[in-house]
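Feature request disguised as a bug report, sorry. It would help if multi-protein outputs had a clear separator. Right now it looks like this:
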Amino acid sequence: MHKRMLLWTVPGVLWLLFTIWYTDFGGPLSEAEIDSGISSMQVNGFTSAEGLAKLRAFLTKDTGRQFLMVNNIDMNEHPPSMPGFGAEATAADYVNHYMEHMYTQLFKRACHPVFFGSGLGFVADLTGITGPVASGWDSAALFRYRSRRSFLEIIAHPEMQSRHSYKLAAMVKTLAYPVEPSLYVSDLRFILFLVLGFMTAILDILVFGVKQKNEQEQTPV
């Protein structure tokens, strides 16, 4: 019985440790955290008053929960020249340069991509948007952020502003906006719970279920 309990305890502890790391238990951002993050962005070169005001409004309404960033992208087939790259540089080169920094900052805070996809050139519904901006989206991506706190830490990083210009140069247009999921079956905590539970149950059956069956067969009636 001790070994059987250990079989279930180990994956349970692993899931609990992952959940603790994957979840922000700090609650909503405080005013001091918001002020500090925005000040860092200003020091690092982000000086758009309108952009900072919108960011502050987003951070002030923090719920402390995870959210997804929805990205609609129209890549630039002929991007402008950027420092450190030759004239033959492609949009993919610039995006890779940007993501080289972003992936490091994302993964260390339990933030990560959820979905990448290519556009099929068909607009199913279109209301209130006209002109070239309404079409031409050739890719989409979803990124999971552990919390608005993690998001602020990432965008306030000293290297963020210099790298972000390469992302913008790689695109003709982009639209990125956050959503807070009410139904999210791709949550890794849920997936890991199912995987560990399934694997542990199979091992339990193979090891202890078979053993118990053999013992019952050997017991004289």
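(second protein starts here, but nothing in the output says so)
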Amino acid sequence: MSHSYSRRTFLQTSAAAGAAFAAPPQLSRALAPSNRESSGPPAKPAFPVTDYHVHLSEHLSMEQAVDLAKQRGVQIGIVEHPGPGYKLNSDADLKQYLDTLRKYPVHIGLQPVYPGWSKAFSQPLLDQLDYILMDALTLPNPDGTFLAIWQIDTMVDDEQAFMSRYMQFIEQVMTTEPIDIFGWPTFLPVPIARQYADLWTNPRMQRIIDLARSKHIAIEINEVSHVPDASFITLAKRAGLKFTFGTDSRTPQGAAHLYYCYQMANKCGLTEADMFVPRKKSLS
């Protein structure tokens, strides 16, 4: 079940290589170099900003992440994957993770990949986390394997059948997993990403929004995949949902470097009141 290599490294290359193809047409135009140059980078919001989706790696140390946060005027939230194939598999692992990160001015989170992950940990330790972020990108197959829908070579033979299966898993994640933030919302695999406006119908978007509201789950605005779009964010804001910004970065180039998040915050009129507040409100 291990996706340790692919989740940590292939994610970056697949997202980068597929970004232009995968982005909805209107977003591709908005992010084109000529438009960026003419309008300039989006203004940083007036409220305090946090990148809640940063992974430490061989390319990004804790010290680098803290320095980047200071340079870019952004707080940092560190996440690690728990479960088979990853570093955190027991209470002892989780305690060491918490103790290590508490030494630094960062928020401490987890990013589970597989359903049922929390059974490996005691609740008192999980309660010491600032937040838990989970996406629905590792889709269970009927045979017990998993489909990593964020990979470039993901195949989709029937987009409607895929959406039905995808929505079922999204509902499972949002209703049965102990999460605070739903990551990569409305992401679509590369082969069907240009059908974003057609496949993300109002009933499907509203279902995610209703689940998030009932479970008090915040919505991530994801810098890598440029999701969700402004229409979803506007609907979610009207419903009173909270939002986070996340780069899902493992490099100094990406961590705390927010363009799409700022663009959406400005376009959709997000304020400090719309933003997620972690369990621990102040950093040490």
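Even a blank line would do. Unrelated, but nice: Residues 4-22 form the longest helix (19 residues).
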